[in-house]
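Annual report, structural modelling task.

Input specification for the zinc ion complex:
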Amino acid sequence: MHLKTKPLTTAFILLFALSILPVNAQNQKSSDRIAVTAKRMIDVRSGKEIPEVVILIEKNKITAVGSNLKIPDSVQIIALGDVTLLPGLIDAHTHLLHQYYSRYGDDNSNRILEMVQLGPAKRALLGARLAREMLEAGFTSVRDLGNSSINADIALRDAINNGDVTGPRMFVSTRALSPVGGQFQSVTAAAQQLLSQEYVQISGAEEARKAVRQAVYDGADCIKVIANSGSRRLSLEEMKAIIEEAKRANLPVAAHATDGDGPSMTAAEAGVSSIEHAYTVSETVLNLMAKKNIFLVPTDAAGVAKYQERIKRAVKAGVRIAIGSDIYYEFPGKTRGQVCAGMYKTYVVSGMTSIEVLRAATLNPADLIGNNSIGAIEAGRFADIIAVKGNPITDISVLEAVVFVMKDGKVYK
Ligand SMILES: [Zn+2]
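The model returned the following structure:
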């Protein structure tokens, strides 16, 4: 009985569907073409405000931007009203597969617990949540710099790109290259066997080259180097080998450097793309960074006078700044994205102007990452757009309450 009636029923449904399809298609606005409108936009490059802005988008790319642009009939309109549009934020220093808890103690105790308790699978799943939290807070891209077990960052990045997981575009380093012991304090010989889950420990230029080649093979978008962990330091020869290999694969190199001028100077001399932290560097290092176009990625905690003072000196020396959060502790009651968005006001307190901060949150990290499809609302770039209430030029803290997030032409908030 089924055999007789089913083909007929199916045919009827098909015919019916075909008959209504053209009518529907006529009335439906194409979801491939979108116009986003708002009261104003900040052009981060020029620093100018564009009133009554219209952004035309086709698929995932911006095709035109301007005041009161004519919107074609077939385009779907997202009218956001009295808000300010900005490019999606880019956090230049994240650890999305890494979370410490104050209840477990300090960095040293957390580091050991994380290493022994969380393998790549658990790290990637933690990262899936933190990535979503970042995107919801307005971060459409991040440069994620290690502490993500073995290649779990690659897995998360690819899952986001495949649409399996919601998150920002991730540019990832895989494991950081480090002196012997990574960033761990003294642990037993048995525990030392586990350190390679977190760091690739190198001794000598050949091991440095090999580590970069492995990262390239694993799919890294950049290389992270721990120039020093306290007094344990990589040599200039090792750093140079890392940069030479990374350049061959066209990957930027980020160097973690603290404790005065020594490690930062080695990194700058070797020719890294960015120096992370550099809390206490002198003019000598800052001038060399400016001369060699090396970015400073300050990861400043609020209210530390010596950090604020070196931001002033860096700006004066002409060093380009790409702001990174380096947040990896849980802040109960706040998402990771909310905590990271709170970092921008620190830099206004340090003397940067609002537009300098906005550039350090968008254009500059895009340049550092080496991707000219992100970081600005301009024709040809990806439609990564956020909206805030109020105006960040007069009050940078509005970045802490992003009300609209579009990534790759798709609305997430
Ligand atoms: Zn870090």
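The radius of gyration is 24 Å.
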